[in-house]
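Researcher: Quick test of sequence recovery. Tokens follow.
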């Protein structure tokens, strides 16, 4: 997809629209900047972040957002048709990454696109991969 964060987000939004997907979970959503882009594209956004300050900022922008961590998401199984988690795994030790990936798999619908940055040593450039939850 794109090479800048804005282009990456636009590429993921285009993928969701092409597949007719109308909702996305934003993990580590921050103050909701990416969430606004999803909403403007007609895609329902639900954000989570460990920071109460970020959640207050996201809600002030009109977004659906709650305080949660990627390792313990407060949602039912298969609740989301897509997941935007590009910053969620950054800096986590491998065991914690595994916990987050398990939770993402749990809350994503079968076959859902899940956008993540997979940490690679020696490759500092940002870039994300779209994984698919098991069908």
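Model:
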């Amino acid at each position: 997809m794109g090479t800048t964060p804005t282009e990456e987000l636009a590429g993921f939004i285009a993928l969701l629209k092409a597949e007719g997907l109308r909702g996305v979970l934003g993990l580590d959503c921050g103050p909701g900047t990416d969430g606004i882009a999803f909403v403007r594209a007609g895609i329902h956004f639900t954000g989570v972040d460990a920071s109460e300050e970020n959640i207050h900022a996201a809600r002030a922008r009109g977004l659906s957002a709650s305080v949660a961590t990627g390792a313990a998401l407060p949602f039912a199984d298969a609740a989301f048709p897509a997941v935007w988690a590009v910053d969620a795994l950054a800096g986590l030790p491998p065991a914690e990454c595994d916990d987050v990936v398990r939770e993402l798999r749990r809350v994503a619908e079968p076959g859902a696109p899940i956008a993540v940055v997979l940490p690679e040593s020696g490759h500092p450039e940002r870039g994300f991969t779209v994984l698919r939850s098991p069908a």
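The first helix runs from residue 5 to 18.
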